[in-house]
Design goal:
The complex is a heterodimer of chains A (452) and B (174). Helix content of chain A is 73%, strand content 0%. Chain A is built from 13 helices and no strands. Chain A is globular and about 75 Å long. By secondary structure, chain B is α+β, with helices and mostly antiparallel strands. Chain B has two domains: 70 residues, Translation Initiation Factor IF3, CATH 3.30.110.40; 81 residues, Translation Initiation Factor IF3 (2-Layer Sandwich). Chain B is built from five helices and nine strands. Chain B has a five-stranded mixed sheet with strand order 5-8-9-7-6, covered by helices on one side. The chains are: A mainly alpha (452), B alpha+beta (174). Chains A and B meet through helix 11 of A and helix 4 and helix 5 of B.
Chain lengths: 452, 174
């Protein structure tokens, strides 16, 4: 569309992302991957990367292309690279998943599938980071934008390590084969990916979007700055734990990676607690008394984040982190990140659809309200079902009940599908009254491709 | 002890389509201790209430006819609790800044509306104008989506931040 500030390909990113979320949950119900097989089995890696790259990263990228310009009040720079980035990410992910199938023995081919993925995915993420950093560099960074910038640095670390794994597993880089990557680099890959890229970025975006939609004071708070600094310190400690320990040992002092990890966990906890304080502030000081379903459902995600932190503490205290890491990662990925993602899509998709459709006649003709594109009353139950499913799934994993877990995954899938249907109906303006749907001068938005 | 008010009439600046914010702040800086500021404007300058409130001033406003307002900003006894550090207001414009615009016909306060209502109300206001007329709107933040819409509809605008982070925009219908 000419003359609008809408990101052209964001809906396409969202559509691909939701397809991966649905696909991953179908596999979970089918009993594919963890917990039926070990956490490090190729089948589990397929599931994990469908969720982290296919769903969460595509969702985050699509959202950032739309919201980084809003965060810093500058137009997106290099927007023509957004589609090539999507193509690289999707093809890279396809090769990655095929490569894992090759490891599992399901696909028999001599092609170095993982190595190809190890090149396409970094190119895709580099394009994403290039566009977003190029845009961010034009402005003085507000605190939310600084969180996003840190998240972008983290995605580069995550994808670099991922590419190294892919090349190692394909038999390239024999010089590095002697290093114990699983012990030293895998925890960094996971922690910086989930904690840095996905969580830190989500926190940054939420600092802007929540006050915007709830009409809360959005001035920069001292507590938010501490969230930023302690979070950054935790991420740096995690990323550099092994090198730091090596250096400290060289000076003759005793140190173990556990010291650095423990310190990082403590700092991360400080960061999360103060983030919780800020969230409570936004909700309590909102001018909008009746909040919409997206802000209400987001509280489920925030609760899941708190529960994740408590679970991590409990597992560290009882020394059972290794045993229950799957349950913890499930709660983080599905309770916190997916819960936040679905709840915010429920606002973002109608909002962007509304702008795309009614922007040209705004102020000239009566238009429906953004809220008229959805029916909140009927969707409340789906969000409730979703979070109940995640909680039961986490519980099932903790007490080692794979069948209960599959049942819980069925509940989350049902809820996800219902929310997806609602998003499609919103795109189709289905819930708008017939007479108000398409005033003269408007045209119906396409489902997920940009209008020409 | 009574000190005469420091008088500042920003109506000519406003009628010329200018931005009186700097003149007001210079006047405030020039006040003697305890002296109050008597400001004359073509509208009730609500944004200034917040700005000067943060510097410890109490406003008393009354309408003086013809839509004009007189506001007396009296310094409070207490020191301002927290001074908001703020650089010079950012002036953004897409037109020849030398040109003078007619005074805004309406002054919209769209700060406490949920998005996208600040934009909808502003655009509704513009559609009610004749070409060349202007309106002013106070918005919760810099309106990126609105800029694009104004651009595609051929309207001109001038805007700047107030120290509270709100955005005041004057739009001239194209």
């Amino acid at each position: 569309m000419m003359g609008t500030a809408l990101s052209r390909w964001t809906m396409s990113y969202f559509t691909a992302a939701l397809a991966f979320l649905v696909g991953a949950q179908v596999l979970m119900i089918a009993g594919y991957g963890f917990p039926a097989v070990p956490a490090e089995a190729p089948e589990t890696l397929i599931l994990v990367h469908m969720v982290t790259i296919g769903w969460l990263s595509l969702l985050m990228c699509g959202a950032l292309f739309q919201f980084v310009p809003v965060l810093i009040a500058q137009p997106l720079r290099g927007g023509r690279l957004v589609l090539p980035a999507l193509i690289c990410l999707l093809s890279g992910l396809a090769f990655l998943l095929a490569g894992f199938l090759q490891l599992a023995g399901t696909i028999d081919t001599d092609l170095p599938l993982l190595a190809i993925a190890g090149m396409l995915l970094p190119v895709g993420f580099l394009l994403v980071v290039g566009v977003l950093v190029g845009t961010l560099l034009r402005a003085n960074l507000t605190l939310p934008a600084r969180f996003v910038a840190a998240g972008l640095a983290c995605v580069l670390v995550t994808v670099t390590l991922g590419a190294l794994f892919a090349l190692l597993l394909s038999g390239f880089l024999p010089a590095l084969a002697g290093l114990d990557f699983r012990a030293h680099a895998l925890p960094v890959h996971i922690a910086v990916g989930l904690g840095g890229w996905l969580t830190f970025t989500a926190i940054g975006v939420s600092y802007r979007l929540l006050p915007m939609f709830m009409l809360s004071p959005d001035g920069e708070r001292a507590s938010s700055r501490v969230v930023w600094w302690s979070g950054i310190a935790a991420l740096v400690l995690i990323a550099l734990a092994s090198p730091i320990v090596a250096m400290v040992e060289r000076t003759g002092f005793m140190a173990t990676p556990d010291t650095a990890t423990g310190l990082a966990a403590a700092l991360g906890l400080v960061s999360l607690i103060l983030y919780g304080v800020d969230l409570a502030f936004f909700y309590r000081h909102r001018k909008r008394r009746v909040i919409e379903l997206n802000s209400r459902a987001a509280q489920g995600a925030f609760l899941a984040l708190i529960l994740s932190a408590l679970l991590l503490l409990a597992l560290l205290a009882t020394g059972t982190l290794g045993q229950h890491i799957g349950a913890l990662l499930y709660l983080v990925a599905f309770g916190w990140l997916t819960g936040l993602g679905l709840s915010q899509l429920y606002k973002i998709v109608p909002f962007l659809t509304w702008l795309e459709c009614y922007g040209p006649v705004m102020g000239k003709k009566p238009t429906p309200r953004v809220q008229d594109l959805v029916v909140e009353g009927r969707d409340r139950v789906w969000f409730a079902l979703y979070f109940l499913g995640v909680l039961s799934g986490t519980g099932a994993l903790l007490v080692n009940q794979p069948d209960v877990f599959r049942f819980a995954a069925g509940a989350t899938l049902l809820a996800t599908l219902a929310i997806v249907v609602e998003l499609v109906l919103a795109r189709r303006l289905y819930n708008v009254e017939d007479g108000k749907r398409l005033p003269e001068g408007t045209s119906r938005p396409r489902l997920f491709l940009p209008s020409l | 002890m009574t000190q005469p008010h420091y008088k500042l009439d920003v109506r000519p600046i406003l009628r010329a389509g200018g931005e009186p914010f700097l003149a007001v702040m210079q006047a405030v800086d020039a006040l003697a201790p305890g002296q109050s500021l008597r400001l004359l404007a073509t509208f009730k300058p609500i944004p200034l209430f917040h700005v000067l409130g943060s510097r410890g001033f109490e406003p008393t406003a009354r309408e003086i006819g013809n839509g004009d307002w007189e506001v007396i900003f009296t310094p409070g006894n207490s020191q301002p609790e927290d001074k908001i550090p703020q650089s010079e207001p950012v002036i953004k414009s897409v037109d020849n800044a030398e040109e003078t615009w007619p005074a805004p016909l309406t002054e919209l306060d769209n700060r406490d509306l949920e998005p996208p209502d600040p934009m909808v109300r502003t655009l509704e206001g513009i559609e009610a104008l004749l070409p060349g007329q202007t309106l002013a709107a106070l918005l919760p933040r810099e309106p990126l989506f609105l800029f694009k819409e104004l651009e595609s509809r051929g309207h001109l605008w001038r805007g700047s931040f107030d120290p509270e982070g709100h955005y005041r925009i004057v739009i001239r219908r194209g």
